[in-house]
Recover the amino acids of this structure.
């Protein structure tokens, strides 16, 4: 009998979770160390006229994508990996889901590396700890894996405790920043030249778009559609744009380029500890949760807890061996090629085969859906070429890939319908 995580079947409505609890968990995609670092880096590299506008536009794009995927998840009650099985076929999605799991495991390990390095520096600065980094990474991997094993409800409970603390820390950073001048005065310290507006938007979107793609994994537990919409808005527009802006303003105000150094200078040592420890804990638990779901969807006979433990061990081991330093570019490209999957699922559900995502149709999923695979291939090529700088349409590689995949899929799926309608 399947666990209450319902890895390969729709979540029954009696197992719904209040949308605000899901929203609090998802906010950790934004209120975390990587997002603050993104803001810090963008403010240092973006001309004064592009920083705020680029962050706002990028966050709006992420919010729009997240709304579409989260609504599909809320209405079908299925994980993103089960949605991929329907859109691409049971066999067509197997390699896709396993590769997606590899990507998430890789980022799990990267975050453990980031966590271990940051926490070691904080412990040295605050309490004089100069020991090795591997015990920190071991404890981190264990805590994150155990939390994920308990399930989404445990992640939600942890988030309800941690998120308010992290929001207060970000607010204190903002207050400390404006003591050094008004917002307009601080932004005037940005460089006069640098990244283009399109590149700024692309950096905001590309950094976390995979999180928007896998929104169904958590939003399938939400009952009302409006709850899924508000979850997306809170995650990617309100908290996402806000935290990036705070990180950028703090860096410009204090003239610092290292986020931990910045927070220590601001007198936020305990806050830095909370951001590093609490934020990384929940964020990586969500990564591991999705990795376990992807393995469960690709290999239905594997229990979710077994898949979670194996993924957690693999990610932690990769962090120990420091092999991820050599695979960051590979992980980046591996992540962006999955972005078109979301647009294909959205197109399929809203415009082409909605009935195939509901009820008894779930027991008769086709083995392969060629149109979806071809459209994904087209979108993936655009994503890779765009990110490498060889193909520029809108200037945002991830968005270009999603649009191309959606158009290609629509054309491939609607052609048989048009031919059937014209037949005598």
């Amino acid at each position: 009998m399947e666990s209450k995580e319902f890895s390969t079947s729709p979540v029954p409505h009696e197992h719904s979770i209040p949308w605000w609890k899901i929203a609090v968990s998802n906010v950790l995609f934004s209120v975390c160390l990587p997002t603050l670092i993104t803001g810090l880096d963008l403010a240092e590299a973006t001309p004064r006229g592009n920083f705020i506008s680029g962050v706002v536009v990028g966050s709006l794009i992420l919010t729009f994508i997240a709304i579409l995927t989260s609504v599909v998840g809320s209405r079908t009650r299925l994980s993103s990996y089960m949605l991929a099985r329907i859109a691409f076929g049971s066999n067509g999605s197997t390699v896709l889901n396993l590769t997606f799991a590899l990507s998430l495991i890789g980022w799990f390990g990267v975050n453990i590396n980031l966590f271990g390095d940051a926490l070691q520096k904080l412990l040295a600065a605050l309490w004089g700890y100069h020991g090795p980094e591997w015990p920190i990474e071991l404890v981190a991997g264990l805590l994150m894996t155990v939390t994920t094993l308990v399930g989404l409800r445990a992640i939600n409970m942890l988030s309800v405790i941690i998120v308010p603390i992290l929001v207060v820390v970000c607010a204190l950073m903002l207050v400390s920043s404006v003591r050094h001048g008004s917002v307009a005065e601080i932004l005037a310290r940005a460089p006069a030249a640098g990244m283009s507006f399109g590149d700024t938007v692309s950096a905001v979107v590309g950094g976390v778009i995979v999180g928007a793609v896998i929104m169904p994994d958590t939003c399938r537990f939400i009952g009302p559609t409006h709850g899924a919409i508000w979850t997306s808005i809170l995650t990617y527009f309100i908290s996402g744009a806000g935290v990036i802006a705070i990180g950028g303003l703090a860096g410009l105000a204090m003239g610092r380029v290292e986020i931990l150094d910045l927070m220590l200078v601001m007198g936020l040592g305990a806050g830095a500890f909370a951001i590093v420890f609490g934020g990384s804990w929940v964020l990586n638990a969500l990564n591991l949760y999705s990795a376990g779901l992807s393995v469960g969807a690709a290999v239905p006979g594997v229990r979710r807890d077994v898949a979670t433990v194996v993924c957690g061990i693999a990610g932690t081991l990769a962090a120990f061996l420091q092999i991820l330093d050599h695979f960051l570019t590979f992980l980046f490209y591996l992540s962006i090629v999955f972005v078109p999957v979301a647009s294909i699922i959205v197109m399929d559900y809203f415009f082409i085969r909605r009935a195939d995502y509901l009820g008894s149709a779930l027991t008769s999923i086709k083995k392969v859906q060629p149109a979806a695979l071809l459209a994904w291939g087209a979108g993936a090529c655009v994503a890779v070429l765009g990110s490498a700088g060889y193909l520029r349409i809108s200037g945002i590689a991830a968005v270009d890939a999603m649009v191309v995949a959606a158009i290609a899929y629509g054309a491939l799926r609607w052609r048989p319908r048009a031919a059937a309608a014209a037949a005598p």
The chain has one domain: 19-325. The longest helix spans residues 94-127. The radius of gyration is 21 Å.
